[in-house]
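ARCHIVE CARD
SHELF: 3
SLOT: left
DATA:
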Amino acid sequence: MTSAQVDNGNSGGQTVEVVDSGASGEGYQRALGARQIQMIAIGGAIGTGLFLGAGKAIAKAGPSLVLAYAVAGLVIFFIMRALGELLMYRPVSGSFSEYAREFIGPFAGFVTGWTYWLFWVVTGITEVTAAAQYMTFWFEIPQWISALIFTVILYGVNLISVKLFGELEFWFSMVKVTAIVGMILICAGILTLGFSDAGETASVTHLWADGGFFPHGIKGTLMTLQIVMFAFLAVELVGVTAGESKDPKTVLPKAINTVPWRIAVFYVGALVMILSVVPWTEFQPDVSPFVAAFKKMGLGLGAGIVNFVVLTAALSSCNSGMYSTGRMLRDLALNGQGPKFFTRLTRSGTPLVGTTFSAALMLVGVWINYQWPGDAFTYVVSFATISGMWAWIMILISQLRYRRLSDLGVLPRSDFRAPGAPYTSVFALFFIAVVIVMMGIDKDTRISLYCAPLWAALLGISYVVLKARNPENKAFAKS
């Protein structure tokens, strides 16, 4: 992004001038330290998809779900290394929207920015709905009240400062990490020492003894890929923090390089342990595998513990949504592809109008909870996966084009080149294509593909109208 002077608002109603440049963080404060970035990266890979969605996936694939998570995790690593190469070339908060705009074209940047914004708005509604449902485990209060309280609190946190956002996300992630590590250690103790009610039957042979490793065949495993990939959505959020990291050139590569062991421990390791303690045939699609495992062990507090953890995971995701939507809207506005008032920042460097607008839309989730408290989660979840994967596709295509230009000497080489590229990036694109095909085959996820063309048509019309109204705007001219 070229340097530009931006009219920024603040919470006091006054305006200040901030020099905007990709190198300096586009007017943001670089307040996120290494500790916070690392935990944001870890937390982004651990969500309700693991704690809740894995139950349905286990019922479909059996023990082979472990392989699905391992292969998908490798693809996620390829995506993150592709993103890392781009981030070290030019660390900006607009991230993949900026790269799509530069290496593919202005329309690609426009679509990516608005789609990623919508992804987090939809995800925020989904997660605040889920959080409200989890609260009913302890308290008999209407879901919409809990949803309203959570939305207002997280909005306030994100408006105060990016440092407070990072600190809250650090502790949210710490709860999730502690829960998974604790579960792994307990399961390891049961397998080696034989304590608890599950001690007599626990064995690693459960991974292949109950119908084989592929009890429903390869097709059963392939049909879980969309569930698996949904669990990894938001791992790319670390790229959005680039403009507010204290030392992005050092911190971001370290965070990205932790992806393999994070997936190995938190997904593959946790599932191997749980499926060794509890045979896969005993899991129910609508029950968290963590709850089922605690019940098998005879630990009465298990359900309450898992409910607290998934509540934390949901709030973490909603917190991330508040953070990223404001930044994405501001990036679009700075590039002339969104309303100018989205460029305004508070004195603490947070995008005031963009965050407020997005939070207001997330309040739709409160209304949904009020109108349909039993079905709210289902109503808003279908679009998240396909819109989230669009960002991954743009990252990979942008990296392929950047690599070609850097190899030709047109652009400077990144200090953090993706190993195996371009082959790894092409493989990742092929894998995502397979997942989309599987989504079309599965009637439960097919609705996502129905929504995508409607959103694409809306964006296409909006782009044509904006370009016609602003024909001289460089944001609509391919560089």
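SLOT: right
DATA:
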Amino acid sequence: MGSRVERHQHHHDLVPLAALLSREMRNEKMEKPSVRYGYAAQSRKGEDFFLMKTDCQRVSGNPSSVFSVFAIFDGHNGSAAAIYSRDHLLNHVLNAIPRGLGRDEWLQALPRALVAGFVKTDKEFQSRGLTSGTTVTFVIIDRWTVTVASVGDSRCILDTQGGAVSELTVDHRLEDNVDERERVTASGGEVGRLSIFGGAEIGPLRCWPGGLCLSRSIGDMDVGEFIVPIPYVKQVKLSNAGGRLIIASDGIWDALSSDMAAKSCRGLPAELAAKQVVKEALRTRGLKDDTTCIVVDVIPPDNSTPPSPPPKKQNKFRALLFRKRSHDSASKLSRKLSAVGIVEELFEEGSAMLADRLGNDDTCNQSTTGLFMCAICQTDLAASEGISVHAGSIFSTSSKPWQGPFLCADCRNKKDAMEGKIPSGVKVV
């Protein structure tokens, strides 16, 4: 008798498939923020370039796997490096992500793929023998997750509900960045100001040979190899209140602090906001440099929870703004943080050492042909060719030099040059 009742009970709980699917779609809609963006620029030298692409697909042909890319490239010494990076960097990054990953694994693989893509772009551009260089600030937005990779001094800031402004990039300027000064001198570069007649020193700190003020960039073949293309990478998850990103070249940041830029355009839609930031920068400083700004709003869907009121204590809130995630209760924490409008930090790494950035491979990066692949340029390696990222490095803490990822001889040479282990490839023409 009991089994019959049970069966009856179960039957009662069944939901028609169509209803389930529509419920699923509703949740999907609810979860997915929309992205609005605007762009504004004033040109002085014509060396700033940008990329805005809102229709990239993680799984080609699947519109629900869409993500957006926004980037700024501030060129110097010509615009070739900026244009080349705009046209090729995205593909190099995406090609460095293993195929067939689900969304979460894809997002986890992104920081490492960004490093590989930046280094590959730099290596390919340098092989063309052109001497220009470029900063890159590269932003990938997949629903609530924002991943930023950056070399140079174009900056990306985040303005969130409650008015807390945080920086998602680190400026690679010798003037402001002590760690980078130390790294450059340790790798064999010299750091100093321009000397003028009579021994006076003027201007910002520069790196010699080459005289560049930046310590990281793509291109710049005529400076030392210790000017590296390895990006600082930060990945955060926005709360369900969304947020505003302001991505801009140093024409903005030389004139405005991050707070000033954010405040100057609050309450305006993205398109007008970008114009307002540029206007504000020019009002403060005049047009001394190319000045480019992209504003991106990640907007919660209509039926989401109303944003929480801003916390009373701003400084306390700043400490709360980023919370490192611990894996045990990550999703619970995520929900809690989301409810109070706090941004969750998923990943942050700024080291200029490739062995730190490409990590350890438990699963070797085998290509479809069954051969190993170079972790940077994705070329197939014969078994005898691959050199582990961890092999024979004086900085290596790895006890497993045979453990992947592996580099081809060419990329291995680049790695050594960037770490100052072989004479820099400076060609004095």
